[in-house]
Description:
Helices cover about 35% and strands about 25% of the residues. By secondary structure, it is of the alpha+beta class. It has one domain (about 5-70): Glutaredoxin (3-Layer(aba) Sandwich). Strands 2-1-3-4 form a 4-stranded mixed β-sheet, covered by helices on one side. It is globular and about 40 Å long. The chain starts with 5 loop residues before the first strand and ends in a 5-residue tail after the last helix.
Amino acid sequence: xxxxxxxxxxxxxxxxxxxxxxxxxxxxxxxxxxxxxxxxxxxxxxxxxxxxxxxxxxxxxxxxxxxxxxxxxxxxxxxxxxx
Length: 83
């Protein structure tokens, strides 16, 4: 059995681009089988400094997959067997 990949979205609760990315990822989650985590960077100085101007940011571990908008090509590359 393969380990479930964990994708993390860093953003803010009042961010419409964040909502758009989360909605798109939730739609794709059943197909790809990843776990999706959400981190609100509001009031977290280190995360604000790292991601503040780029949100939403989609990460797998320490690897940035995309920011602002979902990059389907990068997501497909993570899950080549599911294309």
